[in-house]
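Anyone else keep sequences and structure tokens together like this?

Example one:
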Amino acid sequence: MDKNRGKSMHDILPNVFKCLKEQQYIGSTVHQDLEYNFHTFLGEVVSLCGQKQLKRVI
């Protein structure tokens, strides 16, 4: 038997919205972290490539 059968939409919706809000926060945080890591990695690659090009010129 479904344990939520007797609950009304009024009782269930706040939990649904809370869950969706938490998922949105987690997704946003993960996206920001990945973006930061990508830019950090890209900066390191550019820095290394720049150093290699300088060594070739010298």
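And example two:
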Amino acid sequence: MTEKIARWAFGTATARVSGDTARFMNVAVKSGIVPLKIDRQGESLLLTVRAKQYRRLHAVKVRTHARVRLIGRRGWPFVLRRALRRPGLLLGAVLGIALYGWLSGFYWGVTVEGEAPYAESEILEAAEDCGAYVGASRAALDEALASSRLQLALPKISWASMNTDGCFITLSVRGAVERAPGADHSGAYDIVAKRAGLVRSVTAESGTVLAEVGSAVAEGEVLVSGITEIGDPYSEEPVRHLLSHARAKVMAETRHTFTASCPLTLESKRETDTGTRRALYVLGVRVPLGLSGAPDSEITAYSREPLTLLGTALPVWVETLRTAAYEPVTVELTEEQAQQRAYEKIRQMQEIYLGEEGVLLSETVTYSLKDGVVYAFSECVCEENIAEAVPISSGT
């Protein structure tokens, strides 16, 4: 390996010698030419000598009347000579090396890995404020300090680290695990009915159950008391009352009326596509791909995608802007369509009201039309948790 490097550094030339090859070699050696390699090719010889000696082969050829043909020149001296003959190529190579060295002093890729309760765009924006962004100077970025600043900027993460690999940054983040809030055991509370209904079931964790399954209760009625009596009824000692935080789940059958409306005439907007504009970001410089100029209507879609090469993101992005114009239009609905929309609103109200525990048992829906507006009325029978904790007053 060392010999190959030395030969390339000093240069070698290979010539094909035919004719009186024996006399040619004798004269060449006596002339001070040192053969590096000799190969026979038929009746000819392939002679390899150093670059500084190959011109002396011409004098030996004249003396021996042999035929000599140069078939190859390799090594640094010949590369340098060709470069000096083409100053533009040499200048371009020098500028290319200088540009490569200058660009190597910046970061040209930032990726995010790990799980965190933030969107990737939010993490990249926070990292940019900490000094880690595409185009940031490698010499000016302190990875440890930037990692600490990133963790402070994103309070919902428990760990953040900036790992660099050449001109690329990898942001490793981990979301914080929040402890679920436990039940509030402080104070004395009763469980009362937050609305009237027919009790279906009572599941009490603490407290004295007063409501009976199958009984009707009014709004505000105590279902589970936070006052517990302690004492022996056969003893002469007085009964003591212990105040506690009553906890219970009371499922009851309730009745509700939901109302929604939908006009027969709606004012809407119609979208008209006004074009798509694209631009190219090269090393942070925006180059418009077209002569359309700035958008003169509302932007409805925006995307910015990096170009990749062999799975590696390049510092080149393609920006796409889609614009559209909106004009007001009047939409006429039939009575059936208006009823359908009004009922969809009622269904949304029911889902919000009942939540995850509530169940819709039955409903009766009626419609009416007045002044160009369709009204929907839903008489519902539901099963829901009517338990509500209320503090026990000091006078109780």
